[in-house]
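FORM 7B: Structural annotation worksheet

SECTION A. Query
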Amino acid sequence: MDLNQVTLPAVNIVESVSFYRKMGFTQIVESPHYARFECLEGDSTFSVHLVKEINNNETGVVIYFESERLDELVDSLKGIGFQFLQEPRDESWLWREARLKDPAGNEICLYYAGENRKNPPWRINKM
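SECTION B. Predicted structure
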């Protein structure tokens, strides 16, 4: 099995579409209640779908996008107005992460983990 996509809730589909397009994702599907995007690398996609409300602007969703040039990406996004909750920093689980939220309150983790993404030292049944 392979992961096809992840779908995020959005209370304002137009605002969410604009946010993800501004981040550089390619929109491949558009409707009044749904939009789908291709990631810049690989075959992954994700989508946003219209919901009536989100309690306290907290969806509980965290979506992860990996970039080998994390710090450059964060600087570039900050340069066009994105606000980050967390600047890039090295974490104890061997990932470098930065965090922000989309207009619906979905948390976005931009990170770089390299080999540690799937093969950390504590992996079970390490290959």
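SECTION C. Observations
The mean pLDDT is 93. The radius of gyration is 15 Å.

SECTION D. Sign-off
Analyst initials: ____
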